[in-house]
Recover the amino acids of this structure.
């Protein structure tokens, strides 16, 4: 399908059913505007992914003391695979909005479908790896994805060795697997806040408390991952971080706008704020002690404690 076909797919959304988003048309349009990329891996690349994930699991277990297993699903994907996997998640999360009425001419439905298609195509072109807890799924499965064409493209654009860059991504995503694996309650904890926020949207209100709690939990998730990466990765990676930051800063205005709309600036703040908290906790006690946040929901830092780790340290016994 061409870009023109994508436009037609979105335009047809107004005639294709009810609900605020036509998910099938959104996925169709996103795939139409994104090249899938190549996942014909060489034997060395295939073994490289397996080795990186296995090494990351062993190293993260050693450094953190957390007991966890890798997800049963570990996939090397191209961009269309990633779009298809994530459209299912978006659809589940937004299902409570399905009964919202759209205007008689389907204009809102068409706009929403087009917006979702743009978001998916942008992310499909840029996501490198993903730990997916499959929120609101009917089972307890989790998944780990690597978007191989994006990893190779970004490694080349940064002028870094592909194998080293791939290994860095693997360590980061396996750290997220450690968090959710060590805290079986974490998925349902996030789900309940997401459901509260979405349910209130159906009533025309904004649940700021639920959204704030989501931000606090995700700040812990991202910050802890940064701490563990610093202590577990088997190489210095400040050069990779600096090159990625320079790449983000050099993006065009449209890309910067999309990143703001997708909340990627907020995610960067979560990294920085969460890392400062966990660095302070690990320095005061140890990396293993910092993992106490995954033992129980009450052990998670509050929003205030994220900025004042000494309060968390005083509250949580050694």
């Amino acid at each position: 399908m061409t870009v023109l076909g994508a436009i037609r797919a979105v335009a047809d959304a107004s005639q294709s059913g009810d609900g605020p988003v036509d998910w099938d048309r959104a996925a169709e349009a996103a795939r139409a505007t994104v090249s899938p990329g190549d996942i014909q891996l060489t034997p060395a690349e295939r073994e490289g992914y397996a080795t990186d994930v296995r090494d990351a699991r062993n190293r993260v277990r050693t450094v953190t003391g957390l007991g966890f297993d890798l997800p049963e699903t570990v996939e090397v994907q191209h961009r269309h695979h990633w779009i298809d996997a994530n459209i299912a998640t978006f659809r589940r999360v937004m299902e409570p909005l399905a009964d919202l009425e759209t205007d008689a001419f389907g204009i809102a439905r068409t706009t929403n479908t087009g917006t979702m298609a743009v978001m998916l195509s942008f992310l499909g072109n840029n996501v490198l790896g993903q730990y997916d807890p499959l929120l609101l799924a009917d089972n307890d499965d989790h998944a780990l994805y690597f978007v191989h064409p994006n990893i190779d493209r970004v490694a080349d654009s940064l002028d870094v060795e592909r194998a080293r860059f791939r290994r860095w991504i693997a360590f980061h995503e396996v750290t997220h697997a450690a968090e959710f694996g060590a805290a079986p309650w974490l998925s349902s904890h996030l789900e309940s806040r997401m459901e509260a926020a979405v349910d209130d949207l159906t009533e025309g209100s904004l649940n700021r408390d639920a959204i704030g709690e989501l931000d606090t939990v995700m700040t812990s998730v991202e910050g802890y991952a940064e701490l563990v990466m610093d202590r577990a990765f088997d190489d210095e990676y400040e050069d990779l971080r600096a090159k990625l930051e320079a790449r983000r800063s050099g993006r065009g205005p449209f890309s910067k706008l999309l990143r703001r709309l997708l909340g990627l600036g907020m995610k960067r703040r979560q990294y920085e704020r969460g890392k400062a908290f966990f660095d302070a906790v690990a320095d005061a006690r140890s990396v293993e002690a910092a993992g106490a946040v995954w033992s129980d929901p009450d052990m998670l830092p509050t929003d205030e404690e994220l900025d004042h780790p000494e309060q968390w340290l005083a509250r949580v016994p050694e």
Notes: Residues 1-11 have pLDDT under 50 and may be disordered.
